[in-house]
Amino acid sequence: MSRLILADDNTLWIGMTKCTNGERFAKGQDYGCLTMYDTAAGAVKLLEPFHGDATVILSVTGLHKIYTAEGGQVYIYSTKDGSAINNEFVTVTGTAYDVAYIDALTDADNTVY
């Protein structure tokens, strides 16, 4: 199963499941289930560390971030450079397979994470 989404900053995000079944894993090379492709620069960034299957990618347009569910947990990344954003205030009880974002009327109502 794969997921693709276009997000802010000319980025295309690709999420996969069963990444440990791939050729890169078999050869001991870097691997992961989430990849950021910068469409303007033509550059690929494999996001590490490997957290597990990427079952969803959600773009938060205008806030330059995406939310993902990887390995049953929620992670947040910046679309500017693919860096991880602190998710200490995101609490998941059980296993996360999907993510929903409910937008507020203004950015002032949005959380900082």
What are the SSEs and their pairings?
Elements: E1 2-7, E2 11-16, H1 23-26, E3 34-38, E4 43-46, E5 54-60, E6 65-70, E7 73-78, E8 84-85
Antiparallel strand pairs: 1-2, 2-3, 3-4, 5-6, 6-7, 7-8
Could you describe the 3D structure shown?
With 113 residues, the chain is mainly beta. It has one domain: Lipocalin (Beta Barrel), CATH 2.40.128. Helices cover 4% and strands 37% of the residues. The chain is built from 1 helix and 8 strands. It has a 4-stranded antiparallel β-sheet, with no helix packed on it. The chain has a 4-stranded antiparallel β-sheet with strand order 5-6-7-8, with no helix packed on it. A hairpin with a 4-residue loop joins strand 5 and strand 6. The longest helix is centred in the first third of the chain and has 4 residues. It is globular. The two termini are 28 Å apart.
What brief labels describe this structure?
mainly beta, four-stranded antiparallel β-sheet, 1 helix, 113 residues
